[in-house]
Amino acid sequence: MKLRIGHGYDVHRLTEGRKLILGGVEIPHDKGLLGHSDADVLVHALMDAMLGALALGDIGHLFPDDDPTYSGADSMKLLEFVNDLIRDKGYRIGNLDATILAQAPKLAPFIPAMQERIADVCRIDREDVSVKATTEEKLGFTGEKLGIAAHCVVLLTEL
């Protein structure tokens, strides 16, 4: 069985007047993430990891931010497209491990729902989806509550 590993990273600035969406889940917060789509950093990092594992570029190539088609796009729908693309190439997610970097809000209560949403869209078992959150001890742009970032590593296996 052939295995492929990919890593993804994304970051977006926090701003007023936007919903905070992470892992396809709306999180109650006074700010949301600024971006062309819904700016779901977790899902964007996951998609980049999936695409990177198969050397298919990144989401900026697939869903350009200057294309009005993707203005306000639901990242879970984009994830479904990327998941179908990797399946068309003969692969599926074996497992993924993601970390969200955010000083606020506290994300622990929302992580199970994020894992469920991602597992459902990617058509994998919930046990194959690891999502963690951490602060950066008030250091850097995430620590200063200016933005939120996410890293994701994914293992793709042949179908």
From TrEMBL:
Residues binding a divalent metal cation, per UniProt: D10, H12, H44
One biological process term in Gene Ontology: terpenoid biosynthetic process
Recorded catalytic activity of this chain's protein: 4-CDP-2-C-methyl-D-erythritol 2-phosphate = 2-C-methyl-D-erythritol 2,4-cyclic diphosphate + CMP
Pfam family, one: YgbB
Cofactor binding note of this UniProt entry: Binds 1 divalent metal cation per subunit.
Record-annotated site: Transition state stabilizer: H36, T135
Names of required cofactors: a divalent metal cation
Chain ranges of the 2-C-methyl-D-erythritol 2,4-cyclodiphosphate synthase domain: 3-156
EC number: 4.6.1.12
Group of enzyme by EC: lyase
Source species, domain of life: Bacteria
Keywords of this entry: Isoprene biosynthesis, Lyase, Metal-binding
InterPro entries recorded: MECDP_synthase, MECDP_synthase_CS, MECDP_synthase_sf
HAMAP family cross-referenced by the UniProt entry: IspF
Oligomeric form and interacting partners: Homotrimer.
Entry protein name: 2-C-methyl-D-erythritol 2,4-cyclodiphosphate synthase
Protein's organism: Ruminococcus champanellensis (strain DSM 18848 / JCM 17042 / KCTC 15320 / 18P13)
